[in-house]
Write the structure tokens for this entry.
Amino acid sequence: MKQSMLKAVALTAMAMAVPAVQAADWNTIHTIESVNIAASPEEAWAAVSRWNALESWCPVFVKTEITGGGAGVGSVRAITIKDGPTFTEELLLLDSDTMTYRYKIIESPLPFVDYTSTVKVRSIGGGNSQILWVGSYKRRDGDSTSPAAGDMAAEQLLTGVYKTCLSNAKKMLQAQ
């Protein structure tokens, strides 16, 4: 991710840090991104399943710190955005057999509420794999744009993060 995009993410996150009330009838937004990788599913899983080291494959983040709950389900991590704020997430599911983990944001200045996300690695044959990242959330209230424009801005922000991280994972794995 270019420095300007990182700064935009950080500035957006800081701007949305003002507490706001969530409307019960907001649309749930879904962001889905994936990348196919010329690496085995086991190699891809080993790269993206490190709950305690998100920054190892996702350059949007510079630090991951486990703040509670150990290393398994229930673990809470604090992650720091490059040139930006820190927020916390809780691990809801970690299944090495299906190469899937799910988590939720607990506390965040980002423009999302009710955020849950799943990262899954699967085989696509020929020793290759796909990493799928799916997020479900509502945008945080507090901007003066229309609901549709606010939803679009929230989705574009998260899509940029997912694409940057997945692209970097592909680059890392295919360089091995």
